[in-house]
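The instructor's notes for this session suggest beginning with a concrete chain rather than abstract definitions. Hand out the sequence below and ask the class to guess, before any prediction is shown, which regions might be ordered.
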Amino acid sequence: MKTRYSSLVSIKKDAMQKSEGVLQEALATLHNAEEAYADALRALQNITTPQSGKIVQFLSYRQLLDAQRRVIEETKEWVSFAGSQVKQAQESLKKAMMEYEKFNYLEVEEIKRIIKQQKLQEAKDLDEIALLTFTKKSSTGAFL
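After discussion, reveal the predicted structure:
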């Protein structure tokens, strides 16, 4: 049944579904960032310290450690950013859901009101038909 809120409900539902999609993407990005962070930590743990060798080997080991620490720091920042994006998407979804529910409620109430009016009108029509039928039978003398 179409009401004055029907188009708003469909718009709000589309907005809510779009927000759900954005949240899913943000969650996927967060998951990827967390995996990258865990991989970076594992890579740092897998770097073995040279026990002997030339100074060049120790210096390259030091550079490798520094590079891996930078990677860890970058992935940590990525995780933090992705987490904030998830929170923002959740807030957006929450607002969109509230808007949808509000207009959906208004539409349901409008439908209830219309149905109630239709039932009332139908009852009046039936009463009028019954009254007309009764009056017609009384005036023709068919009623004893």
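Then share the key points. The CA atoms of residues 12 and 37 lie 37 Å apart. The mean pLDDT is 90.
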